[in-house]
Amino acid sequence: MLTRAVRDRVGEYRRRMRERGLRPLQVWVPDVRTPEFAAQAHAQSVLVAQADEGEQGFVEA
């Protein structure tokens, strides 16, 4: 059965990764495709662009 074969391959892959000292980890990140993310990124970029030279030097360092 195909499902069993996939399960076996995934299990084998995970076993090998654990042998290498790694562990599985699920990470939730912002969805950069949303309009809300684009608006927030733009708002933050405007604030950075308006920063005075001293603050900008710190950001770029």
Automatic annotation (TrEMBL):
Judging by the UniProt lineage, the source's domain of life is Bacteria
What protein name is recorded for this chain?
Answer: DUF3018 family protein
Under Pfam families, the record lists: MazE-like
